[in-house]
Amino acid sequence: SPDEGWQVFTSAQAPDGKCLCTAVIPVQGSCSRDLRSLQLRQLLEKVQNISQSMEVLDLRTFRDLQYVRNTEALMKGLDSRLRVASEGHKSLNARSFQDLKEKMRELLPLLPVLEQYKADSRLIVHLKDEVRNLSGILLAIQEEMGAYDYEELQQRVLLLEARLHACLQKLGCGKLTGVSNPITIRASGSRFGSWMTDTMTPSADSRVWYMDGYYKGRRVLEFRSLTDFVSGQNFVQHLLPHPWAGTGHVVFNGSLYYNKFQSNVAVRYHFRSRSVLVQRSLSGAGYNNTFPYSWGGFSDIDFMVDENGLWAVYTTNQNAGNIVVSRVDPHTLEVLRSWDTGYPKRSAGESFMICGVLYVTNSHLAGAKIYFAYYTNTSSYEYTDIPFHNQYSHISMLDYNPRERVLYTWNNGHQVIYNVTLFHVIKTDGEL
After folding, report:
1. Which of 13, 56, 154, 336 has its C-alpha lying 20 to 30 A from 375's C-alpha?
2. Which of 94, 190, 240, 129 is nearest to 415 (CA)?
3. Do the bridges between strand 322-328 and strand 309-314 make them parallel or antiparallel, or are there none, so unpaired?
4. DSSP class of 291
5. pTM
């Protein structure tokens, strides 16, 4: 509903009659129009004003108190001399009288100071009333907000999540139009490696898998959650029966898919049973740095998952070193269909799949951008210009997670994620 902050950014009709639109999710804090929020803002402004007044008052009082202290001795001396003068004014000569006048003149600046003290005392009374009023307002807001207990707020959040999920289900696959700034999750491991979450599990499963290094490795760490991964705690270790090559691994529906070292064999390792369920050779696929990405690292074979399933990206001598994209059966590892993209793999920094489209970066170093897109549904390609910030200047793994709609990256010993912006097509004629 527009009342909740949703907006249709652009809309158009495709030749086949489908409605194409871009929807803008409500910005965080859209409830700023709420009465409570307005009251809280006004309360904050008043508190800031009172704070400023108190600072000025404190500074002025400190300054005036210093002046009063400095004149204290003068006032005591003058008091004793006036007492003597009043007892025997006949003994007061002209010189003594003149000296007394001078001392009195020195005390004249004390009068405005004392007047200021009177004004400040009135200000203190005013501030006291303001604080009393603010306390009443705060109590009223607290009582109103207290009407929503934790359970009710939690139910509201769950309802909103369900509505958002239902909305996303109406959205078909999207075209990549932008990549966010990088979000560094952790700095650990060597310069090269791979980390990921399962691309096809319920959202409650937040396990993270971590594989340091790009060849001969067999040790996979499974963290219980992202929080545990960040802290480096609460993990179990899987020791693979066959070492891996490269960093193009992916976890899909409880299994790890990876390239067996010194071969073009694809391996499916099942985490729960801790066993290899199937392994199969990718016919003609190069290995052992025959056709890696530009950064090397035995990255000849790269497994990926998107909304359409499991993919393998590699190349062969028959394809003259150009990137081949293959749909792979996740159960048997059989190649279902392949596409020759025409893009030389050694010129690619990294690549990833979104909605059946292969996106290729032009470099793994600083200044990289998403430069090339190959559409498997039409067997066509285009050159793109989608910038992204390569913060640590050496990407050795870049994968899309369709469940979370983010890019996972291993960047020079840093584990980083990027949010993506997709242009979506509405699946049904229903309203969002």
Report:
1. 13
2. 190
3. antiparallel
4. S
5. 0.63
**Unique residue bearing structure tokens 């499974």:** 222
Residue type, 203: S
For the chain, give the number of residues.
432
DSSP string computed for 166-223: HHHHTEEEEEEEEE---EEEEE-S-SSEEEE--SSS-TT---EEEEESSBS--EEEEE
Q: Are 203 and 258 in contact (CB under 8 A)?
A: no
- For 41, 54, 96, 178, 220, the CA distances from 357, given in Å and listed in that order, are 47, 62, 103, 15, 29
- Look-up: residue for tokens 């979506």? 424
Rounded to a whole number of angstroms, the CA Rg of the chain reads: 36
- The tokens of 187 are what? 């700095």
HSE toward the beta carbon, residue 356, CA cutoff 13 A: 13
- Cα-Cα-Cα-Cα torsion 234, 194, 282, 270, nearest 10 degrees, comes to 10
Q: Give residue-wise pLDDT tens across range 205-241.
A: 889 999 999 999 999 999 999 999 999 999 999 999 9
Residue 12 is classified by DSSP as E
Question: In this structure, what DSSP letter does residue 5 have?
Answer: T
Distance of alpha carbon 341 from alpha carbon 320, whole angstroms: 11
Cα–Cα distance for residue pair 293/87, rounded to 1 Å: 107
Tens digit of each residue's pLDDT (9 = 90 or more) over 31-84: 444 555 666 666 766 666 666 666 676 676 666 666 666 666 666 666 666 666
Give the pLDDT of residue 174: 82
Distance CA 89, CA 103 (A): 17
